[in-house]
Amino acid sequence: MKRIAMASVAVAVIVLAIKYAAYRMTGSVALFSDALESIVNVVAGLIALWAVTLSYKPADSDHPFGHTKAEYLSAVIEGVLIVLAALLILREAWQAYLVPRAMEEPLIGIAINAAATTINAVWATYLIRQGAARRSPALAADGRHIMADVVTSVGVIGGLLIATSTGWTILDPLMAALVALNILREGYLVVMSSLSGLMDRAIDPEEEATVRDIISSHADGALEVHDLKTRLAGRAIFIEFHMVVPETMTVGIAHEICDRIEDALQVAFDGARVSIHVEPEGEAKQTGVPVL
Q1: What does residue 266 show for φ and ψ, rounded to 5 degrees?
Q2: What membrane topology is annotated for this entry (predicted)?
Q3: Which of 273, 284, 242, 276 is nearest to 256 (CA)?
Q4: Rounded CA gap, 237 and 234, in Å?
C-alpha cells in the first residue's frame, strides 16, 4: 500500500505538469482550473502516503487498537483541500467572466489535456479497486477524487471544443465554474464518508451476514451467541459478541470454541480482531438480537 501511495504522488505530479502545459499554451481559465485541481491531487497524494505509513505502525501503549484510523484523517483533510480548490476556481471563473479572453492554440492544448485525463482515468480506476480490496479509506478517497477530476476534465474538453468551434468565449469560465461545483460535491462525499468511519460505522450488512453465518457454523457446543457488534477502523475490522455455554462446560472447552470461531473469522476477514465474552447459561444477559 505504501508503494501504491508513493506511485499516486508521482502520477499526480506528472498529470499536473501536463495540464499546466495545456493551460500555458491556451490561456484557458477552464484548463487552469483543471490544473489547479491537479495541485490538490499532489497534496492529497502526499497526505495519503503519510496516512498509509502511519496506519501500519503497530499498536502501542497510547494506541492499543493500532493506528488504522489515520486513513480517515487523510480523507477528511483531502475533502477540505478539495473545497479550497473549488473556491479558488470559482474566483478565477468569475474574473474570466468579467474580462473574457480568447484562447490561443486551443486544439493543441485540449489534446494535451486529454492525454493527462486518460492517465488519470487509468490510475483512478486502479486506486478505487485497490482501496476496496485492501480496505483502505485513504486510497479509495484518493481514487474517487481523481475520478471526479476525470469527469470534470471530460466536461472541460467538451465545452472547450464547442467554444472553439462556435467562438462562444463565455463557455470557458462557465466550464471552470462547473468544474468547481462538481469537485465541491466530491469534497462533501469524501468528508462525509470519512466522518462515518471515524464514528465507528458497522461493517456492511452483507459482511455482517457472513460473520453471523461463520459464527453459527463454528460454534458447536455453545448454546447461544448474542449482542454481536462490529466496527470499521480503516482496513481493520473489530468483531465482538457474547457466547453462552452450559454451566458445566470447562474453561478449556469454551476456549477451544472461541479459538475455532476466531480462526474462521480471521480467514474470512484478513486482520479481523475478535473479542468473545463467554457467559454461563444461568448468568446470560441478552440485550441484542441472537446470532445462534
Answers
A1: -75, -25
A2: Multi-pass membrane protein
A3: 276
A4: 8
Please tell me the number of Cα atoms within 13 Å of 21 on its side-chain side: 13
The pTM (predicted TM-score) of the whole model is: 0.63
Q: Are 227 and 118 in contact (CB under 8 A)?
A: no
Q: Which CATH number fits domain 205-283: 3.30.70.1350, 3.90.180.10, 2.60.320.10, 3.40.1030.10?
A: 3.30.70.1350
2-198 and 205-283: identical CATH topology:
no
Which numeric CATH code is attached to 2-198? 1.20.1510.10
d(C-alpha 233, C-alpha 79), whole Å: 19
Which one, of 235, 230, 218, lies nearest residue 270 by Cα? 235
Q: Is the pLDDT of residue 162 over 80?
A: no
Q: Which pLDDT does position 222 carry in this prediction?
A: 92
Residue-range domain boundaries for the chain: 2-198, 205-283
Q: Which band of pLDDT confidence, cut at 50, 70 and 90, is reported for residue 101?
A: low
SS3 category, 72: helix
